[in-house]
Amino acid sequence: MKMSLNAFFRSAAAAGLCIAALAWTAAAGAQSLIDAAKKEGKVVIYGSLETGIMEAIEKVFTKKYGIPIDYFRASSNKTLDRVLTEARVNRTVSDVVVTNSGPMQLLKKDKIFARYVSPEAARYPDEMKDPDALLSPIYRMVIVGILYNTKLVKPGEEPKSLEDLLTPRWKGKWVMPDPSRHFTTGVWVRNLEQLYGKDWLGMAKKLADAKPILAESFIPSAQKITSGEALAGITYLKYVYIMGKDGAPLDYVRLPKMLADSHQIGIQAKAPHPNAARLFEDFFISREGQEIMAREGEFVTAKGVYPPIKGADKIKAIQMHELDRKEYKKWAGEFRKMFVSR
Length: 342
Known about the structure:
Layout: H1 5-40, E1 43-47, H2 51-65, E2 69-73, H3 76-88, E3 96-100, H4 101-109, E4 140-149, E5 174-177, H5 183-190, H6 193-196, H7 200-209, E6 213-215, H8 218-227, E7 232-236, H9 239-242, E8 250-252, E9 258-267, H10 274-284, H11 287-295, E10 317-319, H12 325-339
Parallel strand pairs: 1-2, 1-3, 5-6, 5-7, 9-10
Antiparallel strand pairs: 3-9, 4-7, 4-8, 4-9
Helix pairs in contact: 1-10, 3-4, 5-12
């Protein structure tokens, strides 16, 4: 079928008008959200994201939109407990929750979150998205690795693997969060199956037999390595940069594979400032937000964006399988017998 030149130009012009109309509609919608968010005055966030990283996000977000952030930072466990406690007494304070996917899935099952599809979510592959749109796409992978104190461990004497921590040289000299109390560490221990197959439980028992120093969570674990209370330990790899820029003598073991914890953001169904919450999510998972987090040491999921950590682009991260509440309770009891009660 042939089209005359005039008809072609009319068709092209019509298509151009449609695209322009869609762009105008999107811009108008975005401005409407910004205006509504500004009227609400602030956004309140609960999460486990490190305070320094949230401050970097807030600096740009508040400058751009004039909306301050009230941030309550706690471990994933305490964030989960605080959100659930407020929900039970019907006194929701926070607008946004941002932590690792395990607690977020538990909160999702308790109907804590409202459905929201951010326009920024279109940039993410389908496998990163929550099928119910109650959670944001996975925006970062927090890698769990072995860190060590470079002042106390001589070059060449650092552990080269998890198995090295089982040797007499390292017994009682390394730290990890208590897997019976710290949700993410419990998930990490259970996910050793992805590295050791059917022998994972035996490996977990060997780790317990090595008498690690037990900490509350990953930050105290890294702090004990930095202070010299422990020579090495299991914690988030990103602390090499986050704490290192403040002088902490930390480096990480170059393992062939490392387990990683996925993180998401959700908007409370009863958020006091719902428009500010939506605007924050849009910014947070945008390319701009991802680049801010990467500069602060985070392993974000944006393609080609890496933290300033040597060898970051070569790390092979394996996403951990999450545990539901029943599974975690079961394994927390088993890990208590292994790591605490012996």
